[in-house]
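Customer ticket, subject: "Can you confirm the structure for PQQ-binding-like beta-propeller repeat protein?"

Message body: Hello, I'm evaluating your service for our small team and ran a test protein. I'd like someone to confirm that this is what the system normally returns, since I don't have a reference to compare against.
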Amino acid sequence: MPMRASTSNDRSSGTYRSPSRRRVLRLAGGGLALAALTAGTVGCDEEAVDVEDPAAGADKPKDGGKASGDADGAGTDGTAPKPLWTKSTSAETYGDNDELVVAGGVVLTSGSPLAALDTATGRQKWSLPGGTVPGAPLLLGKGTLYLAGNKYDGTVTGYDPASGKETWRSRLGEGYRQPRPIAVDDGQVYVIAEILEDDGSSRTNVIAALDSTTGRLAWKEQRDLGTMQNGIHAAVRGRHLVYTDFKKNLTVRDTATGSQVWTQKTTKTNYGFFAVHQDVVIVPQGQKLQAFDLSDGKERWSLEAADFALFKEPAVVENVLYIADSARTMRAVDPQTGQQLWTSEALASAGLQVPRQYVKAGDTLYGATDLDKQGGIIAMDAKTGDVRWTFNDGTGDHHAWLVATDGKRVFALHGTELHALPV
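Agent reply: Thanks for trying us out. I re-ran your input and got the following:
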């Protein structure tokens, strides 16, 4: 879920966009900040509101423009709705999709302290003073929030997202540094960790599986020399753990044994974004979108964008693959066959930026854009791609937007500002 500005291969209207400073820090140097962090304890406070918007912003749009959310209701008149509430947070995000999550009636943003806000009111429910490790995801699975330990002791910890109470702990060992959870399924938590040398340096890393009930090590496998523990994006489907990395590797391992099923190089990375549906993994590679069989790596289908257009980040939402390209063409695709369900030019017609993250509530698809200018949260008809409205908070913050939903509200994070929008 991880935090991703434009890649070196991204172009929009022929203009190159360099990666944001936060993206570079998150992917290349997130682990370096770990040494500066110390552990904290969870503080529960049902009434405290440590992260209130200084302007009490829910009722005060920050500009008078159409995109600021001037309308009541859910934007049925083409104008974005007013936020239900707005809070200033301690968010330290880098654009990754897993830095804004909703679970157990709270919404969390990656940062220090890690604060859980009530989804309905925005009030702080609990906080974790030690916060999150830069570059590590907020990983949800089996009703548990898994966080990388912020000490150099190989610890990974699980919390109840509703209360903030620790419910699970595992320790990979002192011979390993900075274990980071990358994926979770019904039985195991998967982590990447550096292997420590005698002089305290690290040149290699391992991928390991930890039992999500006992915390015991199920298996660990050393990765090839030259691979990195940062920039990992992963997902689990059945017996297959699939992940990408900085070295343009697309790798699948057996979740029961850790053995490598197959691996191959990708031509483009998009910082490793991919989508998984049932038995296929779908990877954007520049002008081509390819789907590979998880069992053997054979290509199942592919699509090509128009000349000079590059595919952006994909997402499978309710069994439909949504993806846009740099020419601002939006597509809905059957993830199993590659059949295009619809194609829309509405983004280009409206002069909007391209979404890079998607969630769905009801019949509306919500996309979060990478940069702020003429971007923000774009609400689209999930059946046609037509644009219904766009929301922007008017701050001018250059950081990527992130979006999440609990089905009742849509949460939009922009820099440190978190907005709850009606659906």
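A couple of notes from the result: Residues 1-71 have pLDDT under 50 and may be disordered. The two ends are 23 Å apart (CA to CA). Feel free to reply with more questions.
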